[in-house]
Amino acid sequence: MKNEIKEQNKIPQFRSYVDKADFRFIAKAFEKNYYAEGTYAKEFQEKLLTLIGSKFGCFACNGTLALYLALKAIGVKSGDEVIVQNITFIASANAVEMIGAKPLFADIVSYKNLTIDLNSIKVTKKTKAMVLCHLFGTACSNIEEVSKFCNKHGLLLVEDAAQALAIKSSNRHCGAFGKVGTFSFYADKTITTGEGGFVVTDDAAIYEKMLYLRNQGRKHSGTFVHQEIGYNFRITDIQACLGLSQLLKLDKIKDKKQKIHEQYKHYLGDQVEFLSLNPDFSYIPFRVVIFVKDAEKTMKYLIKNGVESRSMFYPLHKQPCYRFLGY
After folding, report:
1. What is the spatial distance between Cα 37 and Cα 220, in angstroms, rounded to a whole number?
2. HSE of 90, CA atoms in CB hemisphere, 13 A
3. What does the pLDDT average to over 1-20?
4. Which residues, other chains included, contact 100 with Cβ-Cβ below 8 Å and sequence gap of 6+?
5. How confident is the model at residue 260 (pLDDT cuts 50, 70, 90)?
6. N or C, which terminus of the chain has less Cβ within 10 Å?
7. Of the candidates 183, 202, 191, 153, which has an alpha carbon nearest to the alpha carbon of residue 69?
């Protein structure tokens, strides 16, 4: 067909910023026979902590398990309730369910700025924590209010900052407001290691608990005396090398993403409405989020013209797998 857009000319909804420089950095792991989590993982950890500004941090296999590790380390257990904002990727709720706790979905005041409706939240004696999500490369619009709300009600705040690496205000990084914060390095994140997650905290006791949980109940590998029940949440030095290489070009990735966002704003103009950004924080587009009257029609038009698109996250309370909660 004459109007058919060739595959190579399509504009993808995202593209990982991986190039030959990353391949050369990864080669270091093979040259030194560093395959399991080791020297490069420690270097990657230190650089991430410097960027985020937290005292302690450790890796997990992916963002979902980073959330699970965080929730487990702060003491969330079977039978507890955990508040999760209703608009987010389902992993935020699934990590709660993995522990055996019950996710309670908090309403969103507006899709356009993703503000959590704190008045809609009912805290009970069973409510232990809250999972707050920073979505689409900007900070939650009422993060300060959420933090105060959790302190007032004795809730442990867990920040799902999977899409918010390098998103920060003048004095604090996303993920550093709560008791723990989690990040993801999946293929479509700002920097990628293919799969991978990271958990940060300023609490030494929580950090020590995570060390046991993520490494088969021992703080250090090489011993076969296991003080606690733990699991394997380690990553590899191969992944860490890719992460280190990606961090070196973080500023370039940020600039590219922001320029792409500006192009969409230029060409779409006032025909659509764009996601409202938190003005107090930096912004690195995770996706270019727009709001239109007829999403299906708009998506068909974009696809016909070679622009890939997808819908936003489906509300958690409407997910078929969570019907048993009675929403």
Report:
1. 11
2. 11
3. 75
4. 77, 78, 79
5. very high
6. N
7. 183
